[in-house]
Amino acid sequence: MRAVTFQALRRPLAFETRPDPSPGEGEVVVRVGRCGICGSDLHMTEDAAYGIWPGAILGHEFAGEVVALGKGAEGLAAGDLVSVFPLASCGQCETCLAGEPAWCAGFGLQGGGYAEYALTRPNQCVKLPQTASLADGAIVEPLAVALHGVNLSGLQPGERVLVLGAGPIGLAVAFWARRQGAGRVVVQDVADYQRERALGMGATDFVADPEHPVAASDRALGGKADVVFECVGIPGLIAQAVQQVRVKGTILLLGLCTQPDTFSSFAMLSKEIRLITSAFFKRQEYEAALDALDAGAVEPRMLVTGTIGLDDVPTVFEALKQRTHQCKVLIAP
Question: Which CATH code is given to the segment(s) 143-277?
Answer without folding.
Answer: 3.40.50.720
